[in-house]
Known about the structure:
Elements: H1 12-45, H2 48-56, H3 58-79, H4 83-117
Helix pairs in contact: 1-2, 1-3, 1-4, 2-4, 3-4
Amino acid sequence: MNRFNSATHISTHFDKELEEIREKVFAMGDLVAQQLDLAIEAFTNGNVELAMQVLKQDDVIDGYESDIDQKCAATIALRQPTGHDLDLLIAVIKVTTELEGIAAKIEGIADITIKLNNSLPADA
C-alpha cells in the first residue's frame, strides 16, 4: 500500500517512485535527527571526536538532498503530475532544503564544540 499518498495511481511505477522518494526523505530526516543527538552529546561532554563524526556525515546528508531533489525533478518532468501529487513533490523539495539547513546548524554546533575544546583528535 502506498503510504505517501492515499490514492493509488494507474501507473504502479509512479507509485513506486513516490514511495522511493518518501523512504529517502524519512532516511534523511532520521540521519539529521541522529546528527543532532550526537552534536548535543558532543557539545555537552566536550567530545571532539564525536563532533568530528558529526562533521563527517555532512556529505551523506548533502547527498540525500541532491538525490531527492533530482528524483523529484525527474518525476515532475517525466510524469507531469498535477494537483496533490505536484504539491507533494514541491513540498518534498522544500522539506529536504529545510533538513539540509538544520544539518548546517548542527555542523555549527560541532564546529563550536571543537573550537571550545581547542584540540583535534590525533588522526585529524
